[in-house]
Amino acid sequence: MPVGADVDVDAGEAEVVCVGRVGDLRARTTSGSVHAEQVDGQLDVRSGRGPVTVHLCRGQSEIAVSDAGVIVRAAEGPLTVRGRSADIHVWWLSAPAQLSTSTGNVRVGWDQSRPVTLDLQTGTGRLDVGVPDEPGAEARLSVRTIAGDIRVTPARRR
Prior knowledge:
By secondary structure, this protein is mainly beta. 0% of the residues lie in helices and 58% in strands. It has one domain (7-155). The chain is built from no helices and 16 strands.
């Protein structure tokens, strides 16, 4: 495929792998993993039992999983991740985000150069927050988990 092409995949039980740069990525799997190196446009991923890994999301991104983990190495645009029984790990984040899981830990590395308003809630887990909460900041990080820990640490510029 040409660099920057849009990808739209319904994979059932297959693995979806996008190597290099894509424009928009829409992927649906029942029990297959999704792996993308760089998404310059919108990202929309739905996975039942397959893990999702994205190295760089530049545009608006939405990821929904049931029984699988999510790893986002870097997100420059607004990010929404919803999981049922899923750990969520975002290594570097600099944009507004809503991250939620019923059962699972959430770990976020926040870009130290951007002020952020924090909205963090866990039912039976622990909070470990290493970045300042700055109410009224343009960027807002909302994290919810019913049974899991939330950890927000400073991340250096990629």
